[in-house]
Amino acid sequence: MAFNFDEWATLAKQDCIAFEQKRVATLQQFIKAHAKTSDDLRRLNGLQFRVDMIRRKHKTPLAACIEMSKLLMDYVYQLSDPDLSLAAKRNKRRTPAKLLPFPDIKK
To answer: Which of 41, 69, 99, 107 has an alpha carbon within 20 to 30 A of 62's alpha carbon?
Structure first.
């Protein structure tokens, strides 16, 4: 199935509900066609879920696009780095919390 930008753009302008239904159906069809194993299907659906949540979270399409770009670049770094431990370190965005011990309370 060839992608026709003008057709999709016209549908988005004329009927946003039909556009969204067609978008979801097309993505699901693509995922099912390209998943070779049940793990592939789970991963692709998980990635699509993350993309959908990014779209919902942001108020503007540009903000969503920027965050999706970062997400995809994380995947590119993971795939291009043969040392997975380095990729894991690169993707950590938060520093681990320091655990504070609670003093013993004696009655």
So the answer is: 41
CA distances from 23 to 1, 26, 37, 48, 79 (A): 13, 5, 23, 12, 27
Q: Could you give the angle at the alpha carbon of 83 between the alpha carbons of 76 and 93, nearest 5°?
A: 60
- The mean pLDDT of the chain is 85
Phi, psi of 76 (to 5 degrees): -65, -45
- Tokens at residue 43, please? 């991963």
Q: What is the pLDDT of residues 37-86, one digit of tens each?
A: 999 899 999 999 999 999 999 999 999 999 999 988 887 877 776 665 66
